[in-house]
Design a protein that fits this description.
Helix content: 25-40%
Low-confidence stretches: none
Shape: globular
Number of helices: 2
Strand content: 25-35%
Number of strands: 5
Distance between the termini: 45 Å
Largest sheet: 3 strands, antiparallel
Mean pLDDT: 91
Oligomer: single chain
Strand order of the largest sheet: 4-3-5
Length: about 70
Amino acid sequence: MIETNYRCEICGEESQNPVRWFVIHCGDTQLAIHRWTKEAANAPHARHYCGEAHAQVYISRWFQTFCG
């Protein structure tokens, strides 16, 4: 079985077995935050974050692009 390496979008940390990571699915008008599951992580256009703080960085940046 081939293991998938996931990379945090903010710091670049990599893991084959993420613990306490988050997945964000986003578009132009929607943002959905998911606790880590392989299904959510492997969905098209999924973004991966190694923890709550880095997920919050992305969420803040996403709001700035639409509200700033």
